[in-house]
Records
---
Amino acid sequence: MLPVEISSVKKYYGDIKAVDGVSFTVEKGEVFGLLGPNGAGKTTLIEILEGLRKRDEGTVKVLGLDPWENGYELHKKIGVIPQEFTFFEKANPREAVKYYADLFGVRVDPDEILKEVLLDDSAGVLFENLSGGQKQKMGLALSLVNSPELLFLDEPTTGLDPNARRAIWEVIRDLRSRGKTIILTTHYLDEAQQLSDRVAIMNHGHIVAMGTSDQIIAEHGSGERLEIHGTEKLADHIKANTELKVDFDGKDLISIQLNQKIDALAALAAAEQSGLDWGEIHTRRDSLDDVFVKLVSGIMDEHGEIKTERNNRKPGNQGGSR
Amino acid sequence: MFSAKRTISDLRVFSRGYLRNKFGLFFGLIFPVILILIFGAIFSGNSSGTITVYVQNQDTGPFPTQSMDVATSFIDALNHTGTVNVQLVSPSENFSRYLADHSSSDGIIIPANFSADYLASIPINVTVYGNPSASSSAIVSGTVIGLANEFNLRRFNGSSIIGLTQTTVNTEQTKYVDFLIPGLVGFSILVSPMFSLVNISSEYKKIKLFKQLSLTPLTKMEWLASKVLFYIVLSAVSFLLMVAVGVFAFGAHVTLTVWLIPFLILGPMLFASLGMLVGTVTKNPETAGVVGNIVTFPMMFLSGTFFPISIMPQYLQSIAHVLPLYYIIEGLNAVMVYANYAQALLDIAVVTVITIVLFVAAAKVFKWRE
């Protein structure tokens, strides 16, 4: 039995197709990242898996149970940190863990769990006085109280500063090394890449790509390219003198598709031959960012909102060899 | 399915949070006591019977003998009724100006020749100043009329046949504070659970805390039960505090019997459910607050909380009869003041029905998830 098996899941709100025919399975011990912009349907989908929302169509099995019909049973076996985790203002992390332990009927040492999520130093601070990162860590601590085999983390680092994010990542990596199955939603590309074994990119209620980062890049990326800083005239010259596919970005970057590495030599020979000036050269591969941009057509800002203009696109950190 | 253990765990976390919140503590326990002190001081301060009356005696004599100064004996008699406290005004003062200067509307003028005319059996009028809308003025005129009759009879050697012995209901003397305590107990039973549950249920919905709790084995009935239990305990503590203040500060007479228990249990349960209902059916905390006030405020004033509803016009009394708090306060009065247990039983029956209806409705509309 796989921890999560879903097929053709749909959830409509009137005309809005929040989730529109999603299927996937998650392996035991895997970290499965659900990546997509805001409004892609990630939270709706994850809440269907948690048994908080009722699907309209499709089959859903989580730990062998139907989450909507057997939610009460399921909740004893899963751990969840919902988006924007909140708790009673006037309770501290130690009391919160104790409270959850009582509710689940388990005996745990609150300080030990808080240590696991690196919150042992603030165990006695009231929730209202915790920082954003500490609140999320407390959410993580609560999701671990019932020793779940399966964890749902819905945007665990949204709105946190870089240090707090890294601290949460450390905790998630530790959970993964202890064999927990984790489903993680995020709109941070680096987070999905850093933490997940497999990523599913979601957009408009559909999964538009799924697999390991490399698989997704191989399937949806454009392969290796040679990039030369130069003029449009140079681009035209290379195009005219080689069989290669040459693109110009309209400013100063010429991008040449390399079907094999030796193609770079032909392109550079043509450039040299032109007698025109050219600047920096390098080869690069599409990163997950590039693929993501291509698939969801637009790039996200830090809030997960899609920006339409593409000119502030960052160079990828994968395969950028000189 | 229902677990008392989980209910107690939730109760523990909730009450700890409550005790750490100074505002909740103030409104739950201190505020009702302050109300008792304020209203108690206003209405039952040094025997509300004495009304200050300014008297201008224009009958300055001369009187050959002491017994011929009827004006002075009239004023002395007035002073001895116990209902008014006479303040003499010099005959040279402009009387109405004097009253205005002293912000008073109650005054009496004994005319010149009062004594002489009385002794000669010539009709003569005492002038009583008063404000028709003030109850004190009615008391002053009543007292003067009674005294005048007495003097008239005496003049013709008559004597009263029908006398008057003053007493109040119940064997012991009942004071305003005795009625005030049941009213304010009702007030605190209404206000704390109602406002708190309106706020909690709409706020938790907004920040999705209910959704979070639904991912634990805690059930919504356990959650609701823990809130109801909390407010029953809080109301009981508040009740004891108010009674203690009423007894020690104002010497109130309070009958404590087991008959109070149903009201102290059903009341918080009723208003916790009503608050839950308001917080659940409204869209956001802001609307919930407004609707909560619309439901709470009429009940706060029209149910006999601060004053008996018998002084209100008939149409307001009819409104009072559909307010749940009315039956709680009526019942508390029946138990604590009149020891009328038949009436109390009827009120318990009405309150039980309303409580069950509201509790079931609240439990039904209140959703843990989606």
---
Amino acid sequence: MDTDTAPRPTIVTAPALTPASPDWWIQLQKNAWNDYTSLPWPTRKNQDWRFASLQKLPSTPRIHRPEPGEAAVSLSHDLARIPFPTTATMHFAHAALASGTTLPDDLAAQGVIFLPLHEAVRQHPDLVQAYFMKHRLDLGSSKFEALHAACADAGYFLSVPKNVEVKLPFVFTCALGSGSPALFPHGIIVTGENSRVTVFEHISSVEGSGAFVSAHRDVFAGSGASVHLTSTQTLSDDATTFQAISSFVDKDASCRSLQVNLGASFVRSENRSRLAGSGARSEMLALAIADGSQEVDQRTLQDHIAPNGWSDLLYKNALNHRARTIFQGLIKVEKGASGTDAYQTNHNLILCPEAEADSLPGLEILNDDVKCSHGATTGQVDPEQLYYLLSRGIPPQAAHHLLVVGFFDDVLARLEEPAVSEFLIEQIEAKFSRSEKLSITPTSVTSEDDTDPTEVHGLQGTV
Amino acid sequence: MSDKPDLNLDVDFGNFNVPEHHAFDAGYGITEDTVRYICDVKNDPEWIRDFRLRALKTFQEKPLPTHWATEDLNNIEFEKIRYYLANSQEPKRTWEEVPDDVKRTFERLGIPEKERKFLAGVEAQFDSEAAYSNVKEELAKEGVIFVGSTEGLQKHPEVFRKWFGKVIPTGDNKFSALNSAVFSGGSFIYIPPGVKVKHPLQAYFRINAENFGQFERTLIIADEGAEVMYMEGCTAPRFGTVTLHSAVVELVACKGAKIQYITVQNWSPNVFNLVTKRALALEEAEVKWIDCNIGSRLTMKYPGVVLKGRKARGEVISIALANNGQHQDTGAKMVHAADETTSNIISKSISIGNGRASYRGLVHIPRHLKGCKNNTECDALLISPESRTDTYPAIVVRGQGNSVQHEASVSKVSAEQIFYMQQRGLSEAQAMSLSVNGFVNDLVSQFPLEYSIELKRLIDLEMEGSVG
């Protein structure tokens, strides 16, 4: 928990992005700020926050925006060394664009737009207005969505017109330095009919940053289009982050999102996919490694509005030390969504007896012509597999790592870009080496009953 | 579809009413006076009096749990409910003493007299008090106590008081508090150590007075190594206005004991059925809830087992059928509180017309526990385009060597199956009925014979008119 009691600069009115922002944008952010201040703080009575350790949320997120120091800029340069070929890149240090590569001329000629958000606000006000947070998530974080809208700063606007297929990924990275900075990265991805695009995002901070990051993506997959989005965060272990994806999938379009959560002490991840056109396809993937006293709280909604949609969700969490993950998902099939085919799977791998995995996979089906299923498992490393590796002379730590990477393999295998999978595996390995340095002394196994009052509360909720 | 299946069904089944005459009546609404009146009539000891009054306070203070449950709960008009009615205070001992109109009710419900010989003891509840109570002598000789809850608390306070309200505390939820304040009727059963009751114990419950809530309270204790099977069946005559049924059932399985609690319910579609059922399983004990919910406007029932002793085992087998205007919100709770405890939940639900079936579950494995296992399977079948089904499980796992798996699926009746059966000369309705019975068959076969027959009949009845 954040016990930092040092005075935090709290700005009482939402700051505008840059002095040069147009009036409509300033007004939009002001209105959102009013929403933020008037909406109630979440409580555990709210089912969307059931099980969450709300005390881990900073009671008033400090909206502190220091200039990116040297550390942030140098981290930004590190992040810029993405080891796979890209189409175009943007690397932010805090809310400032530090480096990047521009769009190839042929794509620009075809009408592809890839601009920093603050530029898009000025150059394409109609487009930004049409898509910026058009579809709210409504998964419990309305207050924080409003905060995000009020403060959205670093970000990108990507638009790919009809029939344009871009093979290599667009890359967006954010680097944060120390001094408890707040950042509100916002990505907008709009695709025209039968177009194709891949986006890769990476948000990271220096150690001991104390950062507050609220990241949000609006994804619009036009008829027959295909969107692949991978977003990774490796924030420092004292950071707090909200990670949201709202995707709108039109007729015969397909959207695949992968969230990789490796950092931050408190992660609230929300992902809602609206299957709004007939035959829409949505794949929602996530993997998290939580250690120390990290908490990863995941909320998902597969929203089947139109007929013949297909959605497949796979969330995998590996937990070490006293970490905690919460998965609360829902498949909702509306009355008109006949022929829906929907799956929801959550697997948790507990590496330490002190860790806790909560799983609440839900279904709400209002149509009889459906195929829906969900599954959730929570278990340990298979002792036989471990024994096999140990008998081959692999040290226990390395054997565990291998098994965890193996556990994530079916998520990573779904990425069609092997270079990206490899990069992610590297990030996972890095997480392991950080994890080893954590000198967590397991709390002594006391004989007292495991009745922390919050859990009793949780129990009574379902009587 | 004019061809009705020739199943000799009594369509008026459950559609009857007998004139009411009650010797005691606590009037409408609930206040401290209502509770005192009940205490006076029942001649409650002082500690129960205090218990009831404290419970009333809890009930009045607790909000309705609409932050997670259906808003329909707001439609319960607590002030329009009669909380206590009884036509006599002493449970009847012999069949001859049972009033004729009560007997008629039983007959309409299809409890043949010869069946009673087969059953070990019939504890039939008519309105609040047990109208008929008979335990076979051999059971009494073995020291088995099978009486109404009132008699239990008055004549066997030493056992009763030790466990009463211990598995389900008054403040567990609003409706357990309500029950604690106004409970009457229900069974008290004590099985001494090592006694294995061969025949199932059985009780029938039904509601007969309009606007009358029934608040039975059942406490079953199986001492070390004892075994017992308890069956409960509910049907209610149909009424125009809302009635409330809110029972509390507590089971205690001591070391190595086995308890099976079987319920088949068929409430009329205006009943709110809000029941709290929970068992405590000590070392190596086994508790199995077999639960079948048909009818009612809203049923909220989540039988649970607190696995308190090493190697204890809990199981919930449940079937829910939600027809037009009905909401079956059922599920199970497994609270693991000792090493090597195992639990199993199998739930199947069927939604017909605009019926809604919800599964709500909780599996809780705290830290420091080793080798706990849970398996949960929920399957839902949707019959009509307006049908709805929900699944809301909650799984909390910590500790070492624990494993939990949860699986749920939703499907509709396979068109191919129906086509095949129609080709063989069955009507669409018959084919549907057969298909639905097939869906629940593996669970139904776990019920005792007479119940599985009754259940198949009920499913056929409910399926009538849902196709075509």
